[in-house]
Amino acid sequence: MADPGDRWTVRRVDDAAPDDQVRKAGRRLAIPTPWSDVGVTGSLLFGRCLGSGKTPYQVSIDVAEPRYKCTCPSRKFPCKHSVALLYLWAEGRVDETGVADFAAEWAGRSAERTARREAPPAERTPEQEQAALLRAAERDARVDAGLADLSLFLRDLVGRGLAADSQHRPRRLQEQAVRLVDAQAPGLARRLHDLAGITDATPDWPARLTEGLGRVHLLVRAWQNRATLPDDLVATVRAHLGFTLRSEDVLATPGVHDTWVVVGLRDADEDRVSVRRVWLWGRTTGRPALVMFFAAGGAAFTSNLYPGTELDATLHFYPGRSPLRAAVGERDEHARAVAPWTPPALTVAEASGAWRSALAGDPWLGEWPVVVAGCLQKDVATGFGLVDDAGDSVAVVGDKAWPALAVAGGASCVFSGELSADGLQVGAAVVDGELVVL
Q1: Mean pLDDT of the chain
Q2: 240 close to 187: Cβ distance less than 8 angstroms
Q3: What number is the average pLDDT over the span 67-79?
Q4: b/e per residue, 27-60, with b = 16+ CB within 10 A?
Q5: What single DSSP character describes residue 273?
């Protein structure tokens, strides 16, 4: 029988729904009337749901991955029928039973696909290795040319003055971003795209634009002088330019085994690709980690890491300064609900020091995960802030400030979140040993 502790919460089902429309429709269907042959075996959840036709839809869900299958024509994953079945299960209204034939057949096919995907890659032949080296050299040459043109553009832009011809500056920055995509430096292209959004109407635009252009210039110079830089800094520069590593190469490096608590999740759309950033924290090592998932064309994320859960696993960190991003290697078991946890919390000064140290190693870093203790306060003039016992404070930004205040109830609390130059963006709180996802 499946461990009841592995059952999803209603909050997690809410988060799994692709949008509010599916969430509401799934909630309406989470009643016994349209359902038959409902059951759960291990991590396999299944049932038939009667729709507008005579033939019920067959719904199969592997809640451990998670993966979804429904015979309805919806293009949303999970669909409303899958979400409804998850609600029934989360509320304890699905019993352990023998597996239905349609669910067993789907699970078998899924297991075969997983085995093929996780099979060790075949070793490349000498010819393939040579071809890969040639492709890498050709890409380096394209990046060289693209960054040389960008360097001239930056010199012209700054030489003329940022306020000169400012009405055309966003367009010119966007044009440079497009050229950098062609030069196969998409990471740098995204930075220019963001800078193009800074107009004369943006508060404090001269300082923000100057800082952003300075980081771009530093990245260009670092690439151009990469032959003189240490290997870990070169790896950092390549990552920020948009070079990627094969996951099998990362998984071949030494790993860090721990019980990893999933403390936060954030989704964003970047260049027609949806990106999910999942933050983890090691119980024993106290080490933060970032696992990223990507989905294109409106597809669902293949993420199996959700805030409020933990798993025993080995993480393999990508090379670079201030290593943070990781790939999940071997895991001892599926994710489970977080056991009571009281993480060692930093003061505001210690958290700020951790952020500065990370930024010194990687000047292009956007944010750094921290676990910090303090009292959340609301000021009419300055907004939200976190104040610790020493009286030090940090601004709290993002849309989770009010939920965080409600959870803490005005008392001192331990918060996990992302610290950046703008302030602290909280993602979860630890109250009496319980991780509360905001």
Answers
A1: 90
A2: yes
A3: 89
A4: bebbeeebbebbbbbbbbbbbbbeeeeeebbbbb
A5: E
| Nearest one of 194, 223, 226 to 211, comparing CA atoms | 194
Is residue 157 within 8 Å of residue 168, measured between CB atoms? no
**Position of tokens 């608590």?**
261
Distance between the two ends of the chain, CA-based, in angstroms?
Answer: 31
Mean pLDDT for the stretch of residues 341-353: 94
Residues in the chain: 438
Q: Say if residues 389 and 412 touch (Cβ distance below 8 Å).
A: yes
Which residues on adjacent β-strands are paired with residue 46? 39, 60
pTM comes to: 0.80
SS3 state of residue 417 = strand
Tokens of 378: 């609301």
Q: What is the dihedral of CA 255, 257, 261, 264, to 10 degrees?
A: 0
Sign of the alpha-carbon dihedral angle for 56, 60, 63, 68? negative
Residues in contact with 149: Cβ distance below 8 Å, sequence separation at least 6, in sequence order: 176, 179, 183
**Omega before residue 66 within 30° of 0, cis:** yes
Dist CA 33 CA 35 (whole Å): 6
